[in-house]
Amino acid sequence: MKIQLINPNTSADMTNTMAISARATALPSTQIIPSTPEHGPKSIECAFDEAIASAALLDLIEQGKQQNVDAHIIACFGDPALDAARELADAPVIGIAEAAFQMASLISYRFGVVTTLSRTLPASEHLLLKYGHQTHCCSVRATDIPVLALENIDNQAYQLLKTECLAAIEQDGAEAIVLGCAGMSNLVNQLSKELPIPIIDGVTAAVKLAESLHQLGLQTSKTGQYGKRISKPFIGRYAHWAS
Amino acid sequence: MKIQLINPNTSADMTNTMAISARATALPSTQIIPSTPEHGPKSIECAFDEAIASAALLDLIEQGKQQNVDAHIIACFGDPALDAARELADAPVIGIAEAAFQMASLISYRFGVVTTLSRTLPASEHLLLKYGHQTHCCSVRATDIPVLALENIDNQAYQLLKTECLAAIEQDGAEAIVLGCAGMSNLVNQLSKELPIPIIDGVTAAVKLAESLHQLGLQTSKTGQYGKRISKPFIGRYAHWAS
Amino acid sequence: MKIQLINPNTSADMTNTMAISARATALPSTQIIPSTPEHGPKSIECAFDEAIASAALLDLIEQGKQQNVDAHIIACFGDPALDAARELADAPVIGIAEAAFQMASLISYRFGVVTTLSRTLPASEHLLLKYGHQTHCCSVRATDIPVLALENIDNQAYQLLKTECLAAIEQDGAEAIVLGCAGMSNLVNQLSKELPIPIIDGVTAAVKLAESLHQLGLQTSKTGQYGKRISKPFIGRYAHWAS
Amino acid sequence: MKIQLINPNTSADMTNTMAISARATALPSTQIIPSTPEHGPKSIECAFDEAIASAALLDLIEQGKQQNVDAHIIACFGDPALDAARELADAPVIGIAEAAFQMASLISYRFGVVTTLSRTLPASEHLLLKYGHQTHCCSVRATDIPVLALENIDNQAYQLLKTECLAAIEQDGAEAIVLGCAGMSNLVNQLSKELPIPIIDGVTAAVKLAESLHQLGLQTSKTGQYGKRISKPFIGRYAHWAS
Amino acid sequence: MKIQLINPNTSADMTNTMAISARATALPSTQIIPSTPEHGPKSIECAFDEAIASAALLDLIEQGKQQNVDAHIIACFGDPALDAARELADAPVIGIAEAAFQMASLISYRFGVVTTLSRTLPASEHLLLKYGHQTHCCSVRATDIPVLALENIDNQAYQLLKTECLAAIEQDGAEAIVLGCAGMSNLVNQLSKELPIPIIDGVTAAVKLAESLHQLGLQTSKTGQYGKRISKPFIGRYAHWAS
Amino acid sequence: MKIQLINPNTSADMTNTMAISARATALPSTQIIPSTPEHGPKSIECAFDEAIASAALLDLIEQGKQQNVDAHIIACFGDPALDAARELADAPVIGIAEAAFQMASLISYRFGVVTTLSRTLPASEHLLLKYGHQTHCCSVRATDIPVLALENIDNQAYQLLKTECLAAIEQDGAEAIVLGCAGMSNLVNQLSKELPIPIIDGVTAAVKLAESLHQLGLQTSKTGQYGKRISKPFIGRYAHWAS
Lengths: 243, 243, 243, 243, 243, 243
Known about the structure:
Six copies of one chain form a homohexamer. By secondary structure, chain A is α/β, with parallel strands linked by helices.
């Protein structure tokens, strides 16, 4: 099967990082197609960045559709434009936050989320509420490491991340940790070795869920909320969507 | 004071309609500055339309900021990009759904929402949940009138709208009705005359809340979730946001 | 328009304080009619005080009705007898807690409440739940300053209040502060100058919402929960309500 | 033990009716002291009636306190002034709605409430939310029988009540029925015979809970929310509360 | 009346302890029939223990049924197999956690739970959610005293228990304490003397509720969720249930 | 990898049916080890059946552990003894209801559940609440087909099932259907062909999630709620658990 792995920010280095993680976990028969937008912010760290990134992300979904991919992954922890992408796509679309929360709730009673900037905490809490996982989450913590600093994470930042994971475990009772940024996917192995509880990365979790849906023959339902978008005029830089 | 009234879709006729409503309700000292994007869909009827409209909407917020407006109104019932706009703006930003729900909860115990397409119902329910008004709302109903058909609404469509309002009252116990589309703002007067309960339009409600915040000297808090966005590279058609 | 500003406790000094705040914020065309009950407690600090104050408060609503006021404000942070007053009145009735929560949720993602006595904390939490604002409130803190001490607040008490506001900001992440007592309305200006986030007073917020509803032509819905009370015998000191 | 059975409305006939029910269920060693206010409405059917009845109800609580009763029951389905009464009293205070909901949840998975007027439905729903029993309640239905008509209920009204009970069972899946008015306590026996599920009356339920708390040696906690009220001036018709 | 008091673990000493408490509180006319299973764990401290204990517990319910008991009490704080027991029994079945939460919510606004092992905390929280009492509970604390150590509790363990009760009061605002283990029922008296707030034991609370239901003539509803189990084949060590 | 597929009821025919489904979906490298208990009910249709089935189910988990399986699936829609099994096992344990809800929420906004007997509806609703999926579920419907009748389902029963699926779609707005019984897993293909929306079976969904967790290297967290059970005496027919 073909999985389009969309990095919604314009940092190609980050796309590479997550593609390495994705390929390491994918089945041999799964082809990972990494995808980086040509328009938008270099990192996504607030609602503004997310709103700007959304339209270019949908262009990538359309590209993936033309390439007949069997699933799309939106690899940014805010799951930007997930509902819109599900309307546009025929194949399933999976957000990495939703994927990680699902895996965490299968192997722990209460999990924690450790993410980048403090200002993204309410966004994580909103996703937990939207998906229904807030009762399973006992801790949402920020490291205040900027997203782009994760690309070449130094030891100081790594220790900061590990410290917050430990605080989630010891102070908040977290039994598993969800890493709250696609850019952390290359740190899972080391953290898993150094911490006494499971560490979950949304990118690899999403790859497995995409494969699962494909093997189950399940596609996004097109009858209700995720039904095909309505044809209408679009102008200006979005005129290509007109129909 | 100056209020920027943003119609997030590209239909200038709809901008005019809502500007007439807004001016009719505004204080004499309030200047309404209508604003229509140059890019995007002619109407917003699903998550896809909303996602595409968001970036151009933020360009308009920036324009309003340059014009030193005292408040911004996002006049689309999905309150698109509201959090992003609050990060970007210095002045308060008000969504018409949030505004209408607030007014409704002051004058009724249980209100109903009557909106356009069935497929937008979950989006309305999500907003009710997000804002905390779901316990005050007893009815969310669709007319399946497309947004653009509201511009020159014929009698048949009007009767359809009225029928759903009556159903909300009689079957669901609604004590007030929130109209679920900015394009319905010119129908408030007639519906108010013909129905036994208050009818609430978000555009005019938002104008009053914008004036209220201004007179109270209240601005969006910039310390937490709505703090200023972080400077970073942007490329492609969003390169103007780079800093 | 005429707004009846009801202080539900019998302290005329407090009525004066809040009338000054209300007039300072009201439009020039708005007449503020302060109203103090002849029966009841000098301050309202628990459910008992609130229950005793309710009947006299409803006498004042009836008085306002006779004077053809266009809106009634109940200026006590517990919003006592709000539902009953809405049944009795024709014009809208606004509680200052509900008003303050609404304004706070328009300009912050998470607000805090700083109030008087610790024993009123559960009452504030109950109002947040009832109105649906509990998800937007991250902090409810008491200063343990008695209500009447607010009339001539000394520096020590002011510092105590400021300290709790700072704790709400720094420890709980509050992005705006709602002052939890009508008697604090004269402290808004000083606190706003000394603290980095918006400070919201329910009295002035309610004045603006009353003006807003009036200008929108909205009245309390009389069809359901707030429908006119049923005529019936009343005896003893409430015989004047018989009909 | 001595239980004060307070009927918060001024209808002595209704007090007698409920006293008969209470005595029929009480232990031989329990003395039921019926209590009717000298001030207030003849029946309680809306928030206005409830607010007016509250102060006189608290006078009765004080009377009961002087008589050293071991528990107070507030026998009106809205549980008026319950929190205030708990602050005032030393002995436990039990509301009949809370009592009935508790008994219902012990013997059924989902119960229904059948009450008097439609306009009281939101009040019942609010109590269910406040006490936490909303998940156990699958049906809240009104008969639109006025409270006073229950005193000498004719066959037509009885059939109406039975019809709504049956609808709650058959349409809503109710496994037990809570009768939503103290004035229905004399109908429990007949309804229990004619309906296939348990029928619960709050008056008798409250008597049993009052006896239970007494035998367990449990009193209202006076350390927090229900701590003693604060001494302060009261004027006018409530001057007797000054201290 | 006859109440079957089931200790779901196989420790006969613990059955004796709780039978002493139960008898001390029961009416003279109430016969307490203690019941200990012949199969299962010596204490119940996790979901595994609870699952193993359930089948033997249901054998005891059947025994009680043969003895025509008027109520069954399941005296383990996890309320194991409560729904199953209600399906099986004709008489009411009461769990001690549900009973204790009900009594606590009648005499306090916010109560705390102090229990045995930390690992049982999520189970307590789940029960609070299931029964709807989570809003009334402000504190769930573990002492990490093993259940069997309660049989001959030494002073050190008692002090530990008292310390957590005090922390619930002082740090969490608990106004009453629910003891989270049937094995603590003999400590209620001493703790009540030494602590300033009511202490509630589920065993005695359940005895009173069982007597209350009996005197009210209320039985478990057999029409819905608790309807009689369906006849079907059972094999192996459960063949005696076949029918 | 080796997946133990546990049918918690004693019907070997049903075990075979679900094993066929499981093998058809599993990867070639996955070995499905079907497992049927020697003790317990032939079908699980109420809380009583579930409680009796739990201990034998845990014996099977222990067997699987001895066989070094890499995951255990509990293939009964009530997810019986799931928490207990997670405490006992080292490998992940997946319940088919949780698995099906997760898959449904990835491909639909609102899904429906169509199950066997009406009396199991509250159990399904409880699971939705426990797992946090209640906001995504718009419909829970029963067919009143007994579980064992599914083994050789005739056309009449199949039509009944299809009718309820259609009602969920048309009346309740379901965008996907979760089949509420492991015994329905062989009907997925036919229903998927005849209905316009995705049909989800928990058995196959659980197989894919088990494979996913294995490939991600994730195991049940043993630090908190699912930590190893505490050694203690067990007697009678459970003496083999003593340690």
